[in-house]
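Hey,
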Amino acid sequence: MQTIQGLHHITAIASDPQANIDFYHTILGQRLVKRTVNFDDPGTYHFYYADEIGTPGTVLTFFPWRHMKRGMKGNGEATAVSYNIPSPSLTYWQERLQKHTISLAERQTRFGQEVLAFSDPDGMTIELIANDDAATLQIWEDGPIPTQHALRGFHSVTTWVEQTRPTADLLVNQLGYQFVGQEGARTRFQGASNDVGLYIDLLERPGQPTGSMGAGSIHHIAFRTVDDEEQQEYLTKLRQQGYHVSPVMDRQYFHSIYFREPNGVLFEIATDAPGFLYDEPVSDLGMSLKLPAWLEKNRAEIEQAVPEIQIPQKIKSVSQSGKTGAKQ
């Protein structure tokens, strides 16, 4: 049974869909690779931001519920999404974010790497971590960021927990993660690959309040499995260990199972296949509203219900240069 390679995607909640697009697609330069709807609430969009093709370990997704009140960070939820950037790009990103009037936290060093932290329009914490390790992904070369400075997929996700030990036991003994180290109340674990989305950090906060979901909250984090067979092995194994795991759910671009870890964070295990090229070519990713077969009959009313949005597709400045090739 193959151990978990790392993060597949992270899903969060937003409020205004256009503000969400403007921030992640235009300012951070993550391509909107898929525009669909929340399958449980088809009047709400589901946005997927990633590298050019939606490589697992680069995919941040949002349910943008208009007029959603802001959530409260607390124990039992993931609280920060961290991206890899090349070390020489820290100054570029600091200047770019300041140009867009985004407030930056003071730079810090974590496990020997510099961290630049700020918040998205709904208050969700985003971190850029200087990391020069190899990253197998496909840079969006038509995006607004010079390729040498583009985000290199996820570095890690941080969860706030009442107690580290029970979640650590799940990560190590059930999912195959390895202990990396500890700094104060923060403990880091690493997935089995040597690529993107490797780390999960547990920040122990005993006696602190639990979080409440809302705009700016991370709804769940998803781990990678290659295919349905491997996912089924995890479903069986986790149920045998007493975890209440959902049946397999078809999310069109991957299959998913869900369960809560001991501190209450919602975990998902998702398959790499079939991926985001399942229903449109690379050149057209994110340009039209994609619906699963069972919702196509409702397309007219769904398109009427979701708000109008503007999605720039080719927004690289003519003055940008420095292409480094597709594989970074």
